[in-house]
Amino acid sequence: MATIKDIAHEAGVSAATVSRVLNNDAALAVSEETRARIFSIAEKLQYKPSRLRRMKKEEQLSRQQIGLLMWSTPEDEHSDPYFSSIRKGIEMRCEELGISINKVLRGNGRAEFQPMHELDGLIVVGSIAEEDVTQLFRHGHRLVFVNHSRELNDYDTVKLHFEQATRAVINHLRELGHARIGYIGGNDHIHRLNRQEEDVVVVELRRAFFEKALGELGLYEETLVMQTEWSSNGGYEAMNRLLQLEAKPTACFIGSDPMAVGALRALHEHGVRVPEEMAVVGFDDIEVSAFLNPPLTTVRAHTEHMGRSAVQLMLERIEGREAAVHMTINTTLIVRESCGSKLNGRNSL
Asked: How do strand 101-106 and strand 66-70 relate by DSSP bridges?
């Protein structure tokens, strides 16, 4: 693609002169012969100014047929905004680029899916079996999986750096003097779109890295790990079970902020002072976290950025990138009063 420098070189003038001629700068003192020569060379080299190139790219983007496949339902998103924030990031980036999302499908329902091979790209949010997705969308090189629990070497992926986040939480609690640290979290599944197949239970990454990190320190206690449903009620019930133990933890890492809301209620009902008798750290940094009593220390998951990054990866694939890219998004530890630290700020993980 020809540039202003190419035209300037062939015309024997400066790039600045070429730019001013092509922009019809009336204040430029240049002969008609030179002006004509520059336009002639620009036409011969099929030069297109950046504005026209940008308009052409925007027009090409507007023709892309993009799909979004999510496992979570609108009700799921209402109770836990983790996935709705990812979706928001996808939609915002598409709007900025002038891209329309032609199909939005929800996997967690009863509808049977029809093939989507006509789409130019598909973003999948949540752990949906890749073999089911590729039956619906054959262009695997233009698939982006967001927040998938498996390692998908053949596809573009975007996920959080769960190990680094978990280790940062544990390090912070250890610095505050805690040695008996509990964990509350839920199950993770690889969901099947094929109704004839059962969902596959897999190790939830926050719990896996929690067990690994405490195991390396010689502090892991299986009895302090509670598995429950991903909800405020689940957090409430799991904390009640922790509080029934004879040897209770002095701190608890909770896999989501909605679960932490329920856990804090259980602690208040049992008269357990937070953070004096138990420190609590959540995960997500949802809006309400800063307004709990006490305000919740939590890991900020940059979920909106995950969604925006997924759009970028998909466009690179559409434009011809061949190698799969795996993007890991760091998190930020937001330190508030629920863990008892005198610090009050943020630490990048």
From this structure: parallel
Which of the four pLDDT bands, split at 50, 70 and 90, describes residue 343? very low
Give the CATH class of 162-301+331-348: alpha beta
Q: pTM for this one? A: 0.78
- pLDDT (tens digit, 9 = 90+) per residue, 250-274? 999 999 999 999 999 999 999 999 9
Q: How much is the CA Rg of the chain, to the nearest whole Å?
A: 27
pLDDT tens-digit map of 82-112: 899 999 999 999 888 888 888 888 876 556 6
CA nearest to 143, candidates 72, 195, 83, 68: 68
pLDDT of amino acid 346: 37
**4-47, CATH topology level:** 434 Repressor (Amino-terminal Domain) (1.10.260)
What is the full DSSP assignment across 282-297? EEE--GGGGGSSSPPE
129, 156, 188, 190 from 152: Cα distances, Å: 10, 8, 16, 12
* Angle of CA points 308, 311, 315, to nearest 5°: 145
Show the CA angle centred on residue 42, arms to residues 37 and 47, nearest 5°. 170
Helical residues (DSSP H) of the chain, grouped into ranges: 4-11, 15-22, 32-44, 50-62, 74-79, 82-97, 130-136, 162-175, 205-217, 232-243, 257-269, 303-318
Structure tokens at 242: 């922790």
Domains 4-47 and 63-160+304-329 share a fold: no
- Distance in angstroms (rounded) separating the CA atoms of residues 105 and 320: 26
Nearest CA-CA partner of 225 in 190, 282, 186, 259: 186
- Given CATH 3.40.50.2300, say whether it is the number of domain 63-160+304-329: yes
Which one has a higher pLDDT value, 176 or 111?
A: 176
What token pair was written down for 126? 């949540």
Domain locations in the chain as residue ranges: 4-47, 63-160+304-329, 162-301+331-348
Q: Give the C-alpha separation, 210 to 330, whole Å.
A: 17
